[in-house]
């Protein structure tokens, strides 16, 4: 894992083995979402991966972002 962006993102994801039941590895991304640099890096990594794997043929990435009063357009704002 030599990519600095990937390392930044990985450091912000917490793992909880055997939660909620034995054999499940729960990964908490809330620290990643709270840190603007990590969040920006995760969006950049995702966008770059999709562009690379689909030959640059992606114009938009759409999805439902559950808004609890803030951050509804955060990924869109970061990719501008």
UniProtKB/TrEMBL annotation:
EC number(s) reported in the record: 2.4.2.7
GO BP annotation list: adenine salvage; AMP salvage; purine ribonucleoside salvage
InterPro entries: PRTase-like, UPRTase/APRTase
Enzyme class: transferase
Subcellular location: Cytoplasm
Molecular function per GO: adenine binding; adenine phosphoribosyltransferase activity; AMP binding
Keywords carried by this UniProt record: Cytoplasm, Glycosyltransferase, Purine salvage, Transferase
Protein name, per record: adenine phosphoribosyltransferase
